[in-house]
Amino acid sequence: MTITQYVEAHLPGILAICTAEDWPSLPADPARAHAVLTAPGVTTVVALDGEQVIGFAYLQSDGHIQAHLSQMAVHPNHRRQGIGRSLLKYAAPLTGAQRIDLVTDTASAFYSSFDHRTFSGFRIYPG
Question: How far, in Å, CA of 122 to CA of 21, rounded?
Fold first, then answer.
């Protein structure tokens, strides 16, 4: 396994993982997805098995204090092998931030294995 920064050639693999997770936002518009994954202040990294994308992490950061883990997923056939932890360890210093916030509804046990504090939060949909 190799972990590296995202390039556009990785996009189909990321979109396939998102589709398998039933996360429609990125697969709905691949051009927009690439723009999101490479936007200013964004760090996107991928885990590769050869050329195959087996996981990714997408973080947004102010570059100094705060980062937000927006999405992270590992292909189901490659889970429980330390890939998610490796993605975060590789990506965190690239953000320049001192801390990473995130919201999860499916992976609390995984994220609680990191040094952390738990907060209550909200996701607001401006409308």
Answer: 22
